[in-house]
Write a structure and sequence with these properties.
- The protein is α+β, with helices and mostly antiparallel strands and 376 residues long.
- It folds into four domains: 1-43; 52-141; 150-274, no CATH class; 280-373, Sandwich (Immunoglobulin-like), CATH 2.60.40.
- The chain is built from four helices and 23 strands.
- It has helices spanning 8-42, 173-180, 213-219, 255-266; strands spanning 52-57, 60-66, 74-81, 88-97, 100-109, 112-123, 126-129, 132-136, 144-149, 152-159, 166-169, 189-195, 203-212, 230-234, 238-244, 272-274, 280-282, 284-294, 298-307, 314-324, 329-338, 348-354, 362-373.
- The strands form five sheets. It has an eight-stranded antiparallel beta barrel.
- A hairpin with a 6-residue loop joins strand 3 (74-81) and strand 4 (88-97).
- The longest helix is centred in the first third of the chain and has 35 residues, at 8-42.
Length: 376
């Protein structure tokens, strides 16, 4: 048996090779460790669900709330708030696999309970299905929707998560009489949002009124409790006012905080979307300009005119000017009103006081009018 004798240089070379071979697996392990550490930051997983998703199409909304997005069997609440058709809301169980969320939805619609399955597909951070594209949001309570107010031409922004507990109702004649007295002034339109709590009795959370401006000017006394509401909008003919709960009316949660969230929206002017019909110009034909004398109130100039194309149930507002026989302006004034049904093409008129010495000088008048669908 022979022994192999290596020189010192040979031994050192072999040791260096062994050291290099050892560094290779250590390097691979180090790279794998760093990739695992930073991979979620630079290459986020597309399979993770969020706790809240919101989708909007036109004036319709949907809100998806998942209680625990990491659970194997998911549970939560789903709302479909449709602006001009039946809405639905309820609870669900769901499973998420291969970027697909399979939902078993138990819901209420128009007072009837039903069940159906919904499939949502996940792409990136978003979910899609049922005609909606759901985007994740931080807080479901921050989402607002536009609530129509019936015959009152405004929408109000309210928290979408409370949609199942909110219902628009008409105000009965008995309730109006109780509020304003049997012989008191009453609004031309009214409505209320009723909140149904998890515990306790429903409450009128918000009350809405539409007043004639002439009536509002009489009843709106700043020194009295505002049963008539707080003004949010007005024009020459009408006033829109609102009233509501002043603070929490329930001792329990979440009803107390829900009422607070509603109250926070009531008196913000930006909470209301104006849908009052817009005025547009109409051609006017002046029929006659004349004067008359009332022994009690004085002398007047009156302009009679046709508003061409005005229809039933429309309102008008006009600017009038009277001129003397040489064409010099005597006086200008305004008039407004509702079209005469069932013959809206009849003669309208506007009048204003003049001095006795101006009577003999009146020669002609001009009228410019705008027309809109009436608020009735």
């Amino acid at each position: 048996m022979s022994l192999r004798c290596w020189s010192t240089d040979r031994i050192l070379e072999r040791l260096k090779m062994a050291r290099r071979n050892l560094f290779i697996p250590i390097g691979i392990l180090l790279v794998a460790f760093l990739f695992g550490l930073f991979q979620p930051k630079f290459f986020p997983s597309t399979s993770k669900l969020q706790s809240c998703y919101h989708a909007i199409v036109g004036d319709s909304n949907s809100l998806l709330q998942i209680k625990d997005p990491t659970a194997q069997l998911l549970t939560g609440e789903l709302i479909f708030q449709n602006y001009q058709k039946d809405s639905s809301y309820g609870v669900f169980t769901a499973k998420f696999a291969e970027d697909q969320l399979s939902i078993d939805f138990t819901f209420q619609s128009e007072g009837v309970e039903s069940k159906r399955q919904i499939i949502l597909s996940k792409s990136g951070d978003e979910l899609s299905g049922e005609g909606f594209l759901y985007k994740p949001i931080e807080d479901c309570k921050s989402v607002l929707y536009n609530q129509g107010l019936g015959l009152i031409p405004f929408d109000m922004k309210l928290p979408l998560y409370l949609f199942p507990q909110m219902k628009l109702q008409s105000i009965t004649e008995q309730q109006l009489t109780s509020t304003f007295g049997p012989g008191g002034f009453k609004p031309i339109q009214s409505a209320k949002m009723v909140y149904t709590p998890t515990k306790g009795e429903p409450v009128d959370a918000v009350v809405f009124y539409l007043w004639q401006k002439s009536v509002w000017n009489v009843i709106a006394n700043p020194n009295e409790a505002p049963d008539w509401g707080v003004e949010q909008w007005s024009d020459q003919a009408n006033v829109f006012s609102v009233n509501g709960v002043q603070d929490c009316v329930y001792p329990n949660e979440p009803d107390c905080s829900n009422i607070t969230n509603i109250f926070n929206q009531i008196y913000k002017k930006e909470s209301y979307i104006n849908k009052v019909p817009k005025y547009s110009p109409r051609e006017v034909k002046v029929v006659k300009t004349k004067t008359f004398h009332d022994p009690e109130t004085g002398y007047y100039v009156i302009s009679e005119f046709n508003i061409l194309g005005i229809k039933a149930d429309q309102s008008y507002r006009c600017d009038l000017t009277a001129f003397d026989k040489s064409g010099k302006e005597i006086i200008s004034w305004k008039t407004e009103g509702l079209s005469f049904s069932p013959k809206p093409s009849t003669i309208y008129s506007g009048q204003t006081n003049i001095t006795p010495d101006q009577v003999a000088t009146v020669g002609s008048s001009t009228v410019k009018c705008e027309v809109a669908d009436a608020i009735i």
